[in-house]
Amino acid sequence: MPTHNQVTPAQQLSLWQSWEDTAPPQVIQPAQRPANLTATSPLARAMEEYLLSLQRTRHTENTIRSFRGDLYLFMAQMGTNLPLSKVTSTQLQDTLARWQTMCSFKTLNRRVTTLKGLFGWLWETKILAHNPAGPIVYADVSSPLPQVLTAAEAA
Questions:
Q1: What count of other Cβ atoms lies within 10 Å of the Cβ of residue 92?
Q2: What gap in Å lies between CA 17 and CA 101, rounded to an integer?
Q3: DSSP string of 86-141?
Q4: I need a labelling partner for 134 at 20 to 30 A (CA). Which of 26, 108, 114, 123 fits?
């Protein structure tokens, strides 16, 4: 018999069930192909459609705001009218190499995520026949090793 501080398994189960019942169902919508978006569409149009897609899939406002900033930076370097089919893996890697000198590893990895998300979405919705961001890898974050004190410094 449980004491006044203990919870019986039946009470635990009912607590779990009540929590589960109040949680809203998470429905993941499949990626939808926007009307009139093709491989020859300009980069600017694809970016706006991708951001709308993120809103529909209930990404947080902070995520959308960060991705929007990353995408506008990308568009400023690549050009707004560049057709989607003209974007190559080499161009993406060159852009990321330039960004590497301008930002932290954490920001760089978020920008990699942004580009992988955009081009993965374009490939998933069959707008692009291949994903130019597929071969891109995340920046390797390595912390420097700590300095070891000499015997004289330790004394």
A1: 21
A2: 51
A3: G--HHHHHHHHHHHHTTS-HHHHHHHHHHHHHHHHHHHHTTSSSS-TTTT--PPP-
A4: 26
Distances (CA, A) of 151 to 25, 77, 146, 148: 61, 53, 16, 9
- Give the tokens for residue 70: 């990353």
Encoded amino acid at 32, one letter: Q
Q: Cβ(130)–Cβ(85) under 8 Å?
A: no
User: 111: closest CA among 102, 99, 120?
Assistant: 99
Q: How far apart are CA 45 and CA 50, in angstroms?
A: 9
User: How much is the pTM?
Assistant: 0.70
Is the pLDDT at 23 greater than 80, yes or no? no
